[in-house]
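Our collaborator T.R. sent over the components below with a one-line note: 'Predict the complex.' Nothing else. No constraints on interfaces, no templates requested, no preferences about which chain binds where. So this is a plain run: every listed entity goes in together, and whatever single assembly comes back becomes the starting point for the next discussion.
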Amino acid sequence: MKEKEFLNIIKHTLKSELIGDDCAYLKDLGIVITQDNLVEDVHFSRKFATPFELGFKAAMVNISDVCASGAIPLYLTSALSLPDDIEGSFIKEFYEGMKSACEDKVEIVGGDITGSGKIFISVTAIGSDKGRKISSRKNARPGQKIVVSGEHGSSGAGLRLLCDGKKNPQKFIQAHLMPRAQIQFSEKIAVSQKTDYAMMDTSDGLMDALSQIAQASRVLLEVDFGKIPFDKDLKYFENFEDIILYGAEDYQLIATVDDAQDLTVIGSVESSDVYGVRIKYSDKLIFYTKEDVEKKLYKHFKEQE
Amino acid sequence: MKEKEFLNIIKHTLKSELIGDDCAYLKDLGIVITQDNLVEDVHFSRKFATPFELGFKAAMVNISDVCASGAIPLYLTSALSLPDDIEGSFIKEFYEGMKSACEDKVEIVGGDITGSGKIFISVTAIGSDKGRKISSRKNARPGQKIVVSGEHGSSGAGLRLLCDGKKNPQKFIQAHLMPRAQIQFSEKIAVSQKTDYAMMDTSDGLMDALSQIAQASRVLLEVDFGKIPFDKDLKYFENFEDIILYGAEDYQLIATVDDAQDLTVIGSVESSDVYGVRIKYSDKLIFYTKEDVEKKLYKHFKEQE
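Returned assembly:
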């Protein structure tokens, strides 16, 4: 898929300032909106995920996008296109999974159903800006700290286990199948920061989020690898450092902020003529351009297949 | 597809009052929201529709749903899942089609792209309730007039021509490929009515909309067939009366209102122990239950295949 090329065509065709972040911020209405598709045998397989897990994840990824904006996640709508062999029990479990992800905080308010050859799921999430400062990935400024909501790599490890036909450790598999949106971290940032901040979820990997913010804000993000939180059992995996940096779908949040009190700081924003990400390992310092990150992400993705 | 059965399962699982109309009305945010999927070889074929026409229609059907609520259509987001053989030119023309349907009134603010085997399009539309009274299909009350925004049957005739490999009359084919949402009629109703009203678009056919309102409001809708506006050239089609009543995708609006001044009245709302639709032909009066309408819709749909 030529996704990034296609997104550029869309931006060029629509000439819209509102395309670029995970959510579009509609200031006149006081809301943010985001929409994502999940396609069978592209994003998920009925072999690996139960209908409940699928519904859970479909809701969660969109709630996470709203959290990345700093808005209060409030409502979801869904549209499902389903093959003829799908039973009513699938629908029931799917929506129970969605409800579980919503945790009495978010309400599901629409549900279109149509026919299809494979399962297509599209979910839209709406959040409110009330009392919140909304993020933009263009907002990183030299002098800010880079903060993170939690551990990285667990979901990537879980996917590797699933692909290898393994069922343990369960904690990694659960991290992959049932990720949690970082609602509290999002609120903490969006309510406490007095100045503009960048925030993204790490759905496509920590390095992808860092790189996207660096490019959009035209800065250098320097990260101390030793400060990134991760589950210590990841060390039993081959190339565990790559799983932490490039493994996707942890749905943690990273932000660049002026006020990092009580937050987990992993690095800082630096001014630079060349935009990108610099990782400080214990024994070396490596600079990654946008292209470097994209190549590594692609290579990491291919190794999972 | 067991769409209606599945929608009942969703309603039951979610226990939400907000599911039932084409749009969900989120009063706390002052907005309505609707989301629809279009699936290749289920809802459209690349053989019949250009990318421009497809984008146009994907936007229009959602704008039409917002119009049915009476809200002001303001924003669209889209998520496309596309096969590998799709070119950049497809994306460009598709979004130009969407923009054309938006007519400077509606802004497209998001565009997710993912991979897929077949083309899968999901569009979400947002409208504002500012200065508007929002409709519900539960709002029909005995004594109200049934009003309609325009002609029915042209889109159904266009689909029949396309299925038969014909290219004329162009007006019917255009009505099918490039339907127009009834923004002005929607505004007229939503601004002028002092009392609650029901409104729906006729995307699934005029009879479907009448029947849905009758069931949700627990009333009888009596329609004078001779008063339904239609293109007189429809008379050259076999069973043209069925095309007018059951042909889908005209995207006109019907409403039940107390104040029908300057509007096209086609019938009236009556109280009844049995809910449904009664059609007054020149020589007969026929009553249709919910089941009658569903059977006729299915039969009409099958005849198109």
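Summary for T.R.: Chain A has two domains: 3-128, 145-304.
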